[in-house]
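Service request form, structural biology core

Requester: graduate student, group of Dr. S.
Request type: structure prediction, single chain
Budget code: on file
Notes: please return the result as structure tokens.

Sequence provided:
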Amino acid sequence: MPPQFELLTNWAQTSVEGFMLYLLAAIAIPCAFLVLFDRVIIRSGFFLIGVFGAICGLFLILQAQFLALAQLMIYAVGITLVVVIALMLTNPRLEQERMVAGQKERLGGLFVAALFFLVIYCALRSESWPISSLRMDPENVKLIGIALTTTYALPFEFASVLLLAALMGAILLAKAEPKENLSDISEGN
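Core staff response, request fulfilled:
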């Protein structure tokens, strides 16, 4: 093997993982801010797909293949698609009225978000996260799949029914007419 190839191989084994970590963070963090601050709700839903996709990549870097695939299938595709569909069913005029009314609560929301971030940061910083040098068993995904379809099949199905009920409730709330409009209509007749 030529020495240049060996040098490149050694560099790649030590540096590519760190480079990919920073690249995925550079994708996830701006997308997360765009989810929060974009005025168009549908576009925020699509930025959410970018955040979940980058998190999926982070799980792959950490060699957690099952979590990466679950993140991709459940969150990036399933949940985000449900959110985008639910947002498409909402009334845009009603959303604008709520946005104007919600401007007053923005400062309180930012304070709660900053406090929540600080608590999580302090909790994670105080823990030690030892790195294991043991190799992962290639049968891990198979064992998790068997457990989900045998031992934990009932809780898994309950979670899917709960998500379905939440989706149906979100659609009913999105399509419901506000009570003020209904009372105005009845008084006008």
